[in-house]
Amino acid sequence: FLFVAHVSPEHAHLYRFLANVTHCQLMPLLFRPQEWVLKMSVWWLHASISALFFPRENESRSTWHTLLCLYEIGLVVLPELVEILQIRFLPGMLFLPLLFRSAYCVPGVVYSFVAMTRLFVRYTPPNVHTATHCNT
Predict the structure, then answer these.
(1) What does the DSSP assignment read for 71-112?
(2) How many CA atoms lie within 13 A of 131 on its CB side?
């Protein structure tokens, strides 16, 4: 995705979206409480740099755009909330936050795959002219 993110705003949007999903999926690797600030800082830094350097998609305020924004906010907020609730109410189920995070990230990965496949099928590079054959 990174190599095609500069091609169009749609490609850049999908790169940013999938990068957010995968960063969120990898956050449990930093599992100590003292690493919480580090994992949030790394995610925020990447999201900020991506937003600065890649073209922005036309900001349509459609229902789908709103759902994607809410999903991305939930990527960070909901798993952290589940982790806090698990520690408080279900201390014996240490796998619960990881299970929730994995299940929450699957729709984002599937959406990215389907959207990128759709872009790949319908994309025509700029300044590509169809070759005409001359009969000689």
Answers:
(1) HHHHHHHHHHHHHHHHHHH-TT-TTHHHHHHHHHHHHHHHHH
(2) 3
Residue 125 pLDDT more than 70?
no
Q: Binning pLDDT at 50, 70 and 90, where does residue 92 land?
A: confident
Q: What is the pLDDT of residue 33?
A: 76
Residue type, 68: L
Q: Using the structure block, give the residue that is written with the tokens 């809410």.
A: 70
Among the listed residues 112, 24, 10, the one whose alpha carbon sits nearest the alpha carbon of residue 54: 10
How many helices (H) and strands (E) are present in the chain, helices listed first?
Answer: 4, 0
Compute the half-sphere exposure of residue 114: CA atoms within 13 Å on the CB side of its CA.
Answer: 6
Rg value, the chain, Cα: 19
- Rounded-to-integer distance, Cα 35 and Cα 125, Å: 43
Residue 93 has a CB neighbour count (10 Å cut-off) of 10
Condensed to tens digits (0 to 9), the pLDDT of residues 43-60 reads: 888 878 877 777 666 666
Residue 121: is its pLDDT beyond 90?
no
